[in-house]
Task: inverse folding
């Protein structure tokens, strides 16, 4: 492999760009490998699972680009620069960089000084260098930003190429106003709402975009004492972007009287959605939701009639359906019949389904419909909800999987009362040999007991199962 030419190496490294351990190890193979992998690593050098506050070499590399007179000025303010920051570099690292992460850069800056004022002026110089040297910025994470970077030299050129912005609502609105003048081609915007104060700058930034495709909003605050509606302005502006908007992910904390009614009113108007993810939203009841291009549907609370409507009008493109609480039906007698119809509708209308939450009772009809679904669809992952305390139910479920599960199946997540005896589970693993290894997740601590752990480790070693984890409830879903 060390003899592969640079073009082939580059293609391989591109495919493995999210495997930082592998890429870091490639630096040590030889000069060719090093030269090939450095531009990939430096595209987004802030994205790795590292303690950046201890990475003095990153501080040294960025500091190298500072003009000597600036370094001398900063040194007089007791900001420490390592002597190596004055030497030449092997690569023009920042020319490869396509991203800017304020939080991580601030963490690196703490290496130079612990004093707040010193960090403030060092931030300004580091930001300025990054804006100048990063030839084509695509990603900006501006949480905790303290400087109006849109006034820096070359900011209009650099920030005008941004594809994605990640921010929070505590950022002053003037920063969004400044970016709205420059950034017109943002395609993905991720907002963390961490304050009860409404930020009107975000709406202005959304309004300025000509091709916004992906919008995410997540509430992360403790207080809910809003003076004005925190969502309505955002939703109204997004509604005007319905032609281009393909992916919408929202997590609103329950604040009755704000999002509850208005969200249901505007959601049907986003007719070009391919992805709709609505978390922590109570009682989603709108029945007429028609998305002809829908591929991914995650909703926490939904009536089963609404789910039927979406599935029937999805144009056959749905690949992932995760519906966790059928609000009106979950505790009703007719839930069994409705859940049967749900499985049937998925089988009939979703030939491309890969990820699904089939919720069903342990009845003969449910097992039959489930097996029919497995035979027709190429499922890769499932979250199975229900109650399977009896070993006879577990055996029936496992026999169906052994008979009819597609070779594409890689992961099963069990939520609720799934208590498989040691003997039943081991028999399933024995018969699963020769198939692609399964990953299994469950919420039940039964499988932490010693006998289960020994048996599970045995089949892990035989590569019958890839993994078997007991996880908190929320990790089953996401």
Result:
């Amino acid at each position: 492999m060390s003899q592969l030419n640079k073009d082939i190496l580059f293609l391989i490294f591109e495919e493995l760009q999210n495997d930082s351990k592998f890429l870091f190890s490639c630096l040590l193979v030889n000069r060719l490998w090093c030269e090939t992998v450095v531009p990939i690593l430096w595209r987004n050098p802030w994205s790795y699972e590292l303690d950046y506050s201890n990475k003095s070499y990153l501080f040294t590399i960025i500091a190298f680009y500072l003009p000597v007179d600036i370094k001398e000025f900063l040194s007089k303010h007791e900001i420490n620069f390592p002597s190596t920051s004055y030497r030449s570099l092997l690569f023009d690292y920042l020319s490869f960089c396509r991203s800017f992460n304020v939080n991580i850069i601030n963490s690196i800056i703490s290496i130079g000084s612990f004093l707040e004022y010193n960090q403030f002026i060092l931030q300004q110089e580091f930001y300025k260098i990054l804006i100048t040297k990063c030839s084509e910025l695509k990603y900006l994470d501006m949480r905790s930003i303290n400087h109006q970077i849109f006034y820096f030299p070359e900011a209009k050129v650099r920030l005008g190429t941004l594809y994605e912005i990640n921010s929070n609502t505590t950022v002053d609105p003037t920063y969004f106003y400044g970016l709205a003048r420059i950034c017109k081609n943002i395609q993905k915007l991720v907002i963390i709402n961490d304050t009860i104060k409404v930020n009107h700058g975000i709406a202005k930034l959304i309004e300025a975009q000509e091709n916004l495709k992906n919008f995410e909003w997540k509430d992360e605050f403790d207080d809910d004492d809003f003076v004005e509606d925190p969502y309505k302005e955002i939703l109204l502006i997004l509604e005007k972007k319905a032609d281009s908007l393909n992916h919408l992910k929202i997590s609103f904390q329950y604040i009755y009287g704000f999002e509850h009614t208005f969200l249901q009113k505007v959601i049907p108007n986003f007719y070009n959605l391919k992805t709709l993810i609505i978390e922590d939203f109570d009682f989603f009841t709108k029945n007429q939701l028609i998305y002809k291009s829908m591929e991914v549907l995650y909703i926490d609370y939904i009536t089963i009639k609404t789910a039927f409507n979406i599935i029937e009008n999805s144009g056959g493109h749905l690949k992932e359906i995760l519906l966790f609480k059928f609000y009106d039906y979950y505790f009703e007698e007719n839930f069994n019949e409705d859940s049967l119809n749900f499985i049937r509708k998925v089988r009939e209308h979703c030939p491309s389904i890969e990820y699904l939450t089939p919720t069903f009772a342990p009845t003969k009809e449910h097992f039959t419909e489930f097996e029919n679904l497995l035979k027709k669809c190429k499922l890769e992952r499932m979250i199975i909800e229900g109650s399977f305390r009896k070993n006879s139910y577990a055996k029936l479920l496992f026999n169906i999987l052994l008979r009819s599960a597609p070779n594409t199946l890689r992961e099963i997540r069990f939520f609720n009362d799934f208590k498989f005896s040691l003997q039943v589970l081991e028999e399933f693993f024995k018969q699963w040999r020769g198939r692609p290894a399964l990953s299994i997740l469950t919420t039940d601590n039964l499988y932490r007991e010693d006998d289960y752990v020994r048996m599970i480790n045995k089949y892990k070693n035989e590569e019958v199962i890839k993994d078997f984890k007991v996880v908190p409830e929320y990790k089953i879903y996401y």
